[in-house]
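G.,

No rush on this.
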Amino acid sequence: MRVRKANLLVAIATSCLYSATSFAPPKIINGIATPPRIASKDKGNVYCPPLSAAGPPVISNWRYDTSKGIISGIVTNHPTIPDGDRITTSPVKNPNGLNENFVCQTMSGSKYKLANIAFGAKVPAVESKAKLAADNKAKAAEKKRLAEEKKAAAAAKKAAVAAKKAAVAAKKASVALPKKAAPAKAAPKAKSSPASASPAPQITPAALVKLAKSTFSLTGTTVGPNGKYLLAGKPTQSSGRAAKIWTAYLADPNSPDIPAGFADGDASAVQQLTIKLSPDFDRLRLENDNYNKVQSGLFSGRFVKKMDYIQNISSSNRALDGKVSALAIESGQYDLKALLAARKGAPLRGRALRDAAASAGQCIQAVHSSNLVWTDLKTENFVVVRNSDNFNKEVMDNKGSLGLPGVKGIDLESVIVKGGNPIDYSPEACPPEFAVAFMGGYGEDFILDYSYDIWSLGMMLYELSTGVPYFEKKSPSVVTKLLCDEAFAADVSAVPDAKLRDLIGNCLSLDPRKRPDITGFLLHPYFITTGFGPFSF
């Protein structure tokens, strides 16, 4: 923090003239020691930091706001703010290390020493250590569980092999019996018939359950009435939010410990689902409403199918029972971000690129025709809903001849009514006008318009057509600052296809009014001249 040279000289001169006052014992105000104030004929008392002050400012009775990453409390020893005043810092670096008697640093470079924490507030360092210990314990438990499931699966497989051998032996025995009876001239009716052969032994229910756990990585946790859904694998965190994304399967009504369709041990008949569990009931209810709106409007778009929504869902896990709501949707095999990563920087080409662009355009058409703005359009929010066996083929498809007909949109948690205000944002997807509002401190009051999504669509198509994000390897804060720079202009020269380059350039116009609406986007020559107009999807 800078101090004007003139002010510094005045403070030093004044302290010399009034040395007795400057070095007088500090006053106690509300239990907090404050430095002396020097009498002035012109402006009353002038604040003068004690000459003995050293080190960074000290914040006492502090609290850490996890949602914003900031610290607030009572400050002392600050070069410009009087002791005893309340201060709120900018976001801090490495919040997991915050503790009493700890010197922290903010993103802007300022340093503060943290004294006593406010009563009832949580110490981030302690919470982080406890979380790490809990995570390690959970990992160890999961490792043990997987080992046990592997062992059980091996036993089940061995039992199945033994049952098959027994069936073969029984069949051979039934065929051999008539031959032994032939010398005695047994009556024809005594001959063995196919019906008299012993039936092949079936896999036991216990072995089938073990096989299901191994095959689908079932956790043993169920959610929904009467254990409707079986959770599997490990959840992923919804970007920057409290929700967790789980792989799940509908439970078999006759055998609730296995997925529906697995009664005969055939995994190909089982349908995989995705379930989002969130303790933020209002936010998940909003997403459910958004799915209902876009999929029942004039244009339904290409979104994954919403299967179920349950508030305050019941669960066999006490940590979840009644504490979260659930949204079940159609599962995607992988998202477009993962596809680009697997292609190691190789962009999409030909039909595959047009399929992805068309799907994105149709999703935006569905959202905008419902008077909504998506605000979170990016490659991570488009998945491919097809057989997973095609993944390697699509990775190796350099010319895009196979296409990507299964691309569908997901995650409508941030969708807001046109004219409303954003509830969160992704720096790589936000337009310059929002970045300026955010940096100016009025991002929460920004008025959303359809042009917001058109900019995001342009950025996503740039990434798909070049293989890399426009702001590759740049932090969110740097991206936001670049968008605010008056000299910034989107450079789309790296896009190889001339028509697509023109379309992306139009979408990334700095003037929101010059960006095309979604109809203009779908009627662009890039689609029309290749037979991918809005009426032929």
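When you get to it, here's the other one too:
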Amino acid sequence: LAMMAAATNALVGQQHRARWAYFASASRVCTLVLVLLACSLALSLLHLVGARGEPGPASPAESAGPLVSSSALTSSQVPYLALVAPAAPAASYADADVAIAAQAAGSSTSTLHIPTWHTPLLHTPTHASAAPGGSVCELPEFAPGAPRPHISIYVFAWRRLTSLIRLLQSLAQAEYCGHRMPLTILVDGFALPSVVQHVKGFGWPHGPLTLLIQDEMAGDGSPASLGIRGMWINCSRPDVSDSEHVLPLEDDIEVSPLYYWWLLRAAAQYGPLGDGDLMRQRRLVGISLYTPRLNEIRYPQVKWLPDAHERAPAFLLQVPCSWGALFLGSQWREFLAFYRQRVTPPFFNFSQEATQRGVGKSREPLGDPHLRLPNSRSNVWPRSWKRFLIDFMYGRGLLMLYPNLRGQRSFSTTYMERGGHSAKDGREESSQALAVRKDIDPLKTVPLVAASQVRAAQHALADLPAFDSLAVFDLQHERRPAAALVHQGFAFTENVRWWGQARASRDATGRGTAAGGGTAAAGAAAGGAGPASEVAPDAATADRFKGTGEPNSAAAAAAAA
């Protein structure tokens, strides 16, 4: 009995000690986890304070970090991860740019506000695009015999001098490696004299420069002011060839020094861009310089990060980019013809924009309900050219190519300076001539690929997928097969065709015949054309274009129809 009692006590003691040892180990593990969580929280708070405090968020030109996930890199690529644009004293940037802007504006420097974190964007560095390890001009895309698409740049200017200076400097500092790039600057009517003065004094070293100043052209029958929509629609000839590609840029955009290289890289992989039949077969409308962080089709806009949905360095999206994109000549020409038909009554009436009611979710849609896209916020956008390009792309199942670098680092960015479309729901804000916006939205102003990141960009974009292997996202930013978008667009345009035929049958008057042009509009969207007798506009319809910033020629309207 004594031995049994002793053994029992020993066993109980051992279990008791084991239990306490287990609890002690668990306690130490919990303590370690709590310490790690506290450190993580402290680092997050420090990052948040640094991101929201003065002098402001890092500018796109200064943003650092790898272009692709480090897990996808080999050891030979690791040295390029740390390449960032070198920082220089802010005072040197600010002093030089204040003097430039003040001289162009004919005013004192005290009226020019340039936040300190913006000054590197205005800096004119020494020609230092040659990153450690080589120059961009040594890349295969600039080799003799490499594809060289015909690209024309169009810059839109009006009353934002500082923004215009930033854009023109970024274009001039970009790498072209001897390629000639035609540049056209369009200055809308009633522009600031300082803007006109700066444009007239601007030198473009990379090719021919054309200045189109609306105030000096108004005497030849042109409208006094085009507006932002009219500048987009009228920037190029309506009959551009398949091999003439259009790069329109609003003045609150900035481009990366490597933007042209990215276009050449995409052309080498997915071209030839001048082959109109191939581009129509692939339903490719253009190549974006910008990578989005938002789904602007939904209301309210929601955050959408492409690299969370697709790991490949490029993807296709059914939404066009207006913040820096190359539009292919074959599709741009057909869009302009579609646009001139789409904006005529009964399809659309510009006077409705002046009486549009509601705000936010209750904003009144514009145009006939039968032509509105399903679940698209673009239906409410006033003064917008882009909403009609979205219609065009939706009806034909067209797509735009986008880069997909880590952190949405892009080859262009926007600052959403106050002006024609910067306020909520596309309403206007007063333009600021000699100031740049301080309340930058990081979901719209994405970081730029720096000149010194040429090798990192080359590695990131070296293995672009074959075109048929690219991820495809529809208007709602949902992943879909490309063929499904074609069928969806065909069904939509067939509904428009049915509406036009039904309307024509109800109304035998001349207006009913014009309304029957729904057949032609739907046919244009689907790639076909309706009978000429159903779409020929009368002189009164063509005259409505005059003074609205839209095409103002009856002959042009008839030809487009």
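The mean pLDDT is 76. The longest strand covers residues 150-157.

Enjoy the weekend,
O.
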